[in-house]
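FAQ

Q: What does a record look like?
A: Structure on top, sequence underneath. For example:
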C-alpha cells in the first residue's frame, strides 16, 4: 500500500506564522503543501478549485474567524487549529478538530498532531488505521527521523542523550527521557528504570530484577515491578 500523503493548506493572517507552518509541512514526508491563504474569504474562494485533505487553521482573523470559515464550507477537510489563544479549545472540538495547537508551534507537537490526522485519514479510507502509521519523529544527526512505534524495542538514557533500539538499528539523539516518556503512548510503553523505557509488546520474560527483550537483559527497578505486571496484564 502506498504511503499516506495528505494535501494541506495553511490559513493564517500572519505571514510569519504561515511561514513557520509551511516549513514544518515541507519537512514532513507525509504532507504536501498545495495552498496557503491569509484570510477566510481567500480560503473559501481558493478551496472551490483546490482539493485539500487537511487545513492548518488560525482562529482569530479579520473579516471572518476560522470558525465562521468552517461554517461556510460545504465539504470540510480535516482541521488542525493553530492559534495563540487557549480559550477556543473547547469550541474547536465542536468542529471535530483533529487537534488544537498553541502558538508558537514546535516540531514535536506538530508531528504528533499530524500523526492523528494520518490515522483518521486511513481509518476513513481503508477502514482501519495502518499499523505502520503509528510513529514519532526524533532528531538525529541534524535530521528528523521517523520511528515506527511497533518497531521500537526500548530506549536508554545515556547522560544528555537517549539511545533508540529498534528492530533494524540503533541510534542516539540529544534529548531527555522525560520528553519521550510523555510522548510515547502509555498503554504500549513503560519506564521500568530511571534509564530505560520499554515497549511492552516486546517483553519476552521478566523476573524481580530484569526483563528480557530479544535476549537483551534490561534492569527492572524494584518499585516498578508492580507497574510492569499491571501493564502487561492490561495487554492480555
Amino acid at each position: 500500500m502506498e504511503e499516506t500523503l495528505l494535501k494541506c493548506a495553511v490559513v493564517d493572517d500572519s505571514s510569519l506564522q504561515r511561514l513557520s507552518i509551511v516549513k514544518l509541512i515541507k519537512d514532513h514526508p507525509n504532507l504536501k503543501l498545495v495552498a496557503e491563504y491569509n484570510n477566510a474569504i481567500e480560503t473559501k474562494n481558493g478551496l472551490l478549485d483546490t482539493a485539500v485533505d487537511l487545513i492548518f487553521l488560525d482562529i482569530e482573523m479579520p473579516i471572518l474567524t476560522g470558525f465562521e470559515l468552517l461554517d461556510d464550507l460545504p465539504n470540510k477537510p480535516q482541521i488542525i487549529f493553530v492559534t495563540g489563544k487557549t480559550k477556543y479549545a473547547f469550541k474547536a472540538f465542536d468542529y471535530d478538530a483533529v487537534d488544537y495547537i498553541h502558538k508558537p508551534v514546535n516540531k514535536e507537537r506538530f508531528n504528533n498532531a499530524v500523526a492523528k490526522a494520518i490515522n483518521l485519514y486511513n481509518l476513513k479510507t481503508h477502514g482501519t488505521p495502518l499499523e505502520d502509521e503509528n510513529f514519532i519523529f526524533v532528531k538525529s544527526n541534524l535530521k528528523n527521523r521517523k520511528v515506527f512505534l511497533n518497531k521500537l524495542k526500548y530506549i536508554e538514557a545515556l547522560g544528555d542523550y537517549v539511545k533508540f533500539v529498534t528492530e533494524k538499528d540503533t541510534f542516539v539523539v540529544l534529548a531527555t527521557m522525560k520528553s519521550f516518556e510523555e510522548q510515547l503512548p502509555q498503554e504500549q510503553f513503560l519506564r521500568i528504570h530511571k534509564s530505560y523505557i520499554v515497549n511492552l509488546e516486546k517483553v519476552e520474560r521478566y523476573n524481580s530484577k530484569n526483563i528480557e527483550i530479544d535476549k537483551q537483559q534490561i534492569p527492572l527497578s524494584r518499585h516498578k515491578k508492580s507497574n510492569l505486571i499491571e501493564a502487561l496484564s492490561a495487554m492480555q
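Q: Is there anything notable about this one?
A: The mean pLDDT is 88.
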